[in-house]
């Protein structure tokens, strides 16, 4: 055993996350002295790029922030602009937006489960090595992801960076005949998603629980995805229009991304475990049955089991997509006009990784005077670091290789979306 009271774990480039980040853990005298999730990817300045643009442009511009969850950025932007301009889309358009979002949840969750996170639990360095032994498993994941991509392609015009979304609705809405072919593939995918829940439920989850406050959108009567008000597990409730009163962001020296906290309350968690804990009762009967069979209780405070919650949410998204397609009636018009006015608008939706806030200020001509975007990863960073601090402190008996593996796994629990790329691992261990 190679544990000592003084040690430093450095992972200079995290693998199997979107973007460029590193991990640094220093132990001195048998206690965790320093923990950092270093995000060193250069800032991309999207908020500055939006200033001076027309109020109709944010859905297309912000979609380029992420190739994995562009729909989240598009629909949060639409919600904020429509809020500023006092416009509400008709129910049929709102249902199509929810269906589009289901497609994104399916493809994003499946990508995370099969290609990014499952290798941690199964002892593989990547999905490529996993595929050598379990080709059938990886092919099931790719088929599931394809089912989500097909929804986004049909509604959005293409699977990545959709072009059919606009402020006020869609440029074009599909006919029932165009949506009908999706149902057969989605039913097959639903069986695959149920198999995924059973598969993931058999993973060996480290015994670890956190006490972070959890935050998510809530919508009474249905699982929140594209709309809702904000709630936390500590009984804080507020409208999306008040998020700037409660969400405080600050710079930290080791990150080019801002750290967020709740005003007067501190760190918090967004994402699948938060959504599940706050909205479990609104899961569809099939998804709720799958959650119960997998051993998920009324809440989920073990971040290592977040992969299981994502699997359950994939079942829900497929079940919901099938329902929306079967009940679909083409709306009378694909969009409503959104005339500009001088105002400030707020929007939020549940991206696969957690709640995504947008705020825009407009002048009377519809030019954007200010923009603010608060993504899930910046909201989770402080909690990730706290998880690492407490996790390492209770596992100093592990050798460096095993401890580093589990620390990286702890980061990937949150599926941090630093940007949309993957890097190889460069590990340095220093001992004194």
Question: Summed up, what is this model?
Answer:
The chain has 432 residues and is of the alpha+beta class. It is 43% helix and 18% strand.
Which descriptors would you attach to this protein?
432 residues; globular; four-stranded mixed β-sheet; disordered C terminus; alpha+beta
Q: What features would you describe in this structure?
A:
- The protein is of the alpha+beta class and 432 residues long.
- 43% of the residues lie in helices and 18% in strands.
- The strands form five sheets. It has a four-stranded antiparallel beta sheet with strand order 3-2-1-15, covered by helices on one side. The protein has a four-stranded mixed beta sheet with strand order 8-7-6-11. The protein has a three-stranded antiparallel beta sheet with strand order 12-13-14.
- Helix 4 runs antiparallel to helix 6 (135-156) and helix 4 (91-122) runs antiparallel to helix 14.
- The model is unreliable at 419-432 (pLDDT under 50).
Helix content: 40-55%
Major sheet, described briefly? 4 strands, antiparallel
Q: Write down the secondary-structure element order.
A: EEEHHHHHHEEHHEEEHEEEHHHEEEHHE
Task: Please state the structural category.
Answer: alpha+beta
The count of DSSP E runs of length 2 or more, i.e. the number of strands, is 15
Arithmetic mean of pLDDT: 89
Rg over CA atoms: 21 Å
Order the strands across the largest sheet as they lie in space. Answer: 3-2-1-15
User: If helices are DSSP runs of H or I spanning 4 or more residues, what is the number of helices?
Assistant: 14
How far is the first residue's CA from the last residue's CA? 15 Å
Q: What fraction of residues sit in β-strands?
A: 15-25%
Oligomer: single chain
């Amino acid at each position: 055993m190679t544990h000592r009271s003084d040690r430093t774990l450095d992972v200079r480039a995290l693998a199997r996350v979107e973007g460029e980040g590193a991990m640094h853990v220093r132990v001195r005298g048998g206690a965790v002295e320093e923990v950092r999730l270093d995000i060193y990817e250069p800032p991309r300045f999207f908020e500055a790029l939006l200033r001076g643009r027309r109020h109709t442009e944010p859905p297309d511009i912000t979609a380029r922030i992420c190739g994995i969850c562009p729909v989240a950025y598009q629909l949060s932007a639409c919600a904020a602009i429509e809020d500023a301009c006092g416009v509400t889309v008709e129910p049929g358009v709102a249902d199509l937006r929810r269906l589009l979002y289901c497609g994104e949840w399916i493809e994003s969750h499946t990508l995370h489960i099969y290609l990014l996170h499952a290798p941690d639990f199964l002892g593989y360095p990547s999905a490529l090595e996993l595929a050598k032994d379990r080709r059938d498993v990886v092919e099931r994941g790719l088929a599931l992801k394809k089912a989500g991509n097909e929804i986004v392609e049909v509604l959005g015009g293409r699977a990545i960076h959709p072009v059919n979304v606009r402020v006020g609705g869609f440029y074009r809405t599909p006919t029932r005949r165009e949506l009908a072919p999706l149902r057969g593939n989605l039913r097959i995918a639903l069986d695959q998603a149920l198999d995924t829940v059973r598969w993931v439920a058999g993973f060996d989850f480290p015994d670890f629980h956190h006490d972070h406050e959890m935050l998510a959108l809530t919508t009474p009567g249905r699982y929140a995805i594209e709309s809702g008000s904000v709630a936390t597990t500590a009984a804080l409730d507020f409208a999306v229009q008040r998020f700037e009163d409660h969400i405080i962001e600050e710079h930290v020296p080791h990150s080019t991304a801002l750290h967020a906290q709740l005003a007067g309350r501190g760190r918090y968690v967004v994402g699948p475990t938060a959504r599940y804990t706050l909205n479990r009762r609104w899961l569809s009967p099939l998804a709720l049955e799958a959650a119960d069979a997998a051993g998920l209780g009324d809440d989920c405070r073990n971040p290592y089991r977040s992969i299981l919650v994502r699997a359950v949410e994939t079942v829900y998204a497929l079940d919901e997509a099938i329902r929306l397609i079967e009940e679909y009636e083409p709306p009378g018009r694909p969009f409503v006009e959104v005339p500009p006015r001088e105002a400030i608008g707020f929007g939020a939706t549940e991206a696969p990784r957690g709640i995504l806030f947008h705020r825009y200020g407009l002048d009377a001509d519809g030019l954007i005077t200010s923009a603010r975007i608060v993504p899930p990863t910046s909201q989770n960073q402080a909690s990730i670091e706290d998880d690492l601090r407490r996790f390492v402190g209770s596992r100093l008996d592990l050798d460096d290789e095993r401890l580093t593996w589990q620390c990286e796994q702890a980061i990937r629990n949150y599926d941090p979306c630093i940007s949309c790329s993957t890097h190889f691992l460069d590990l340095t261990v220093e001992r004194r």
